Amino acid sequence: MNILNIIDEIEKIDGDLSERLNPRRKAMQAISGFGGKIALTALPFALGSMFKKAYGQTSTTAQVVEVLQFALTLEYLEAEFYTKGLSTATFTIPSEAARGALTTIRDHENAHVTFLKNTISSLNATPVSKPTFDFTAKGTFPTVFSNYDTFLAVSQAFEDTGVRAYKGQAGNLIGSNAVLTAALNIHSVEARHASHIRQMRKARGASVKPWITGNDSGIGASVQAIYNGEETDTQAGIKITGIGGLSISASAATEAFDEPLTKDQVLAIVTPFIV
Amino acid sequence: MENLKQTKDIAFLMDSEELQDATMKRRSFLKYTGASAAGLALLAAGCKKDRNDDMGIRLGEGDIGILNYAYALEQLEAAFYTRVAATPNTGLSSAEAALFVDIRDHEIAHREFFKAALGNKAIGNLEVDFSSINFTNRDSILSAAKAFEDLGVSAYNGAGRLIQSADYLLLAGKIVSVEARHAALIRDLISNGTFADTTVVNTNGLDLSRSPGQVLAIAKAYIKTEISLTGLPNY
Prior knowledge:
Chain A is an all-alpha fold. Chain A has helices at 3-13, 17-20, 24-37, 43-55, 61-87, 96-122, 148-169, 177-203, 224-227, 250-255, 263-270, and strands at 234-235, 238-239.
């Protein structure tokens, strides 16, 4: 039996093996440990457990699926929101540029839904079904599909929530490289959306920037829970305002870092939108 | 039995501090092992991240390496926006210039944060090379800003999987979404509606991610200081 050839051969078939064995050094130390201390007959067992760790991820699959199901629910919400806004005949979108941007965002949210469903299925789990949504949030936004500014405000709220929600889940995906990277790649797309929606609102007179200043929503008290916590200017115990003796304002310090939300905080925010 | 001997050889090598620190040059490493074909294949695989990277400053290993990697990118961005803000005739409108000042301050905050967090593990100041950028031309400035912001987003997205500490992963997450907000704005200033177009977002709705090696290969066009990949987590 040639252990080294086995790894080499698998590398030829699976170019990502070295990534799956990440951190590589630990894997190699594992091999070295066997070589030095364990009889040759023990090698297949030890090697098997190493590959199981690389491919099976049995200990974390449930956790990963839970994160993906949570993300899927949020994507269902966003996808249906834009789909409905763009297809409501009585809802006037004032320009072709705006319609184009909203269509781009809608298509991304739909793609996220499909991607997450496929990923959940690939992990042998059943994707959660789409809830029934009430985009007025039980009457809080009665004009969501008749007043363009209300629509954009709810859009901003959803996008900023999405950014915070994905951020809060990243730590639960450590060790699952493919899923973590995909989640990060969705996370930054949501931030791009948020930036654009904020620019659209700014162009219509709202007092917002592409980034979040303090815990100011630029919308009102109805969405404050989405912005609470964004006012922190201390990261890992380091105060950012005036950092390094430089003239970094408190506003800039809060804008420079987006903050996470826990799953419970996010669920509390979206619950009014679910029937 | 030949294989067992190879395994023992590797065991010895893997236990050596030099190798773990990845400071041993590949050539002498291979000469030292005298390994046979099978062993060579594995060793080559094990060393491929380190090839030809013995020149330049070392960012460090593990999470320290990734933090210094981020620090390097933030130094680059902060230097760029500082230069824009210090240039009198950029061609940017006053509204655009104000947004650029905001972004400058965000990037300085990021840079100073990493510097403080790394303490005595922080790399020194990088020497930048902006000779390809015309700072009195709006299009040139926006084009460079777009390149930096999209690169930054892909860098943090791609580095996430290499970060071992959940705290550092969260910090990277806190920064990358701000970089994405910047990127979307800059893209819209160039052409409204391109905030997340198909050059950065694929058909699954996923943004780009790049490995540290890929990012530094692009970034080096703007950085005079040579940066080594040796020891840095990569893939």
